[in-house]
Amino acid sequence: MGFSATSPTVDQGDGASISAVHPDIIMAHILTRLDGQTLASASCTSSQLHAFSTEGKLWRDICSATWPSVADPRVDDLISTFPAGHRSFFSDSFPLLDNFPSRFDLSRPSSPPTTELISAVDIFYKDQLIFSKVQESETESGWFLCSPFRVDLLDPKETVPTPIRHVGEDQASLKQLEENLSLSWIVIDPTRKRAANFSSRRAVKVQRHWLTGEIQLRFATILAGEKRGEFVQCGMVVTCNWSEGGELHVREVSMQVEGMEGNHLNGKESLVILERAIEGGERRKEVKGKGRFEEYLEMKRERRERKERREKTLDMICIATAVTIFLTFWSFVFFR
């Protein structure tokens, strides 16, 4: 049964309307066929559809289909405590996060810090799931607060085989991965009952290591830093390589937060930024992740050049001062 613009969801002038359709048909054969975006739009068309679309099971099924990792019992139970359950979670997590500083009030007070963050991560290739995992990260210990923030989903010697096969030349394989591999990295804050998807969905950079041959796909969201005018990169890296049989193996899936100086932020600094983004970051259907990443790299380059110019100027001043002192001293010695 199809669901098109000509279905009786609006008055066609002959008295037909959504109310003419039996509720069981709407629930079992129409709403269950919709994805989250379409269901949210349909709920705005009439009070009856709005009432039907608040059914918790609909949104639970949509969330599980969109992100298989959230079907994990720990995550599913947590999402059930959100203000509107899975509907709230979908609203937080499906649109891309846009926490660009110009669109976020940095003076906004923050809620009490959370005791843990939960990562629900899914990797797809041509819409086929190839990796899914849930990871809990405590946020209270001194080790977490003082050490560089990093979430690793795989142990150093662990690899995950995938059904992806090597195709053609190396450059063609890189292009194949860039175009078809997508990442969802949802960070859940159990304290605030909020979540956000920090992935750019598509890779912003794909490169092959010249020595090891490993392929690194970088996903990134540019966030507001702790200070006004500061930017940070919430970067997620998927590292993989080709096996002897031509299959792609995933060997690293990690997240770090990097400052504009190229430094990795510690847990305390990263927690403040992530919490603020989760709570106040704007969600958008479309964010030019690669474009934002390239803008960020350009800002880093300009910042580095300004720093180098300042250091060069300071060096020249120091040299001039030293020469002046040297000449003054010997002038005093010879001409006194």
Automatic annotation (TrEMBL):
Q: What broad taxonomic lineage does this protein's source fall under?
A: Eukaryota, Viridiplantae, Streptophyta, Embryophyta, Tracheophyta
**Which PANTHER family does the UniProt record give?**
F-BOX DOMAIN-CONTAINING PROTEIN (PTHR33736:SF18), F-BOX PROTEIN-RELATED (PTHR33736)
> Whose protein is this, by species?
Prunus dulcis
The alphabetical list of record keywords is: Membrane, Transmembrane, Transmembrane helix
Instruction: Answer yes or no on keyword tRNA processing.
Output: no
Q: Which protein is depicted?
A: PREDICTED: F-box
Q: Which residues form the F-box domain?
A: 23-63
Instruction: From the record, give the transmembrane residue ranges.
Output: 313-335
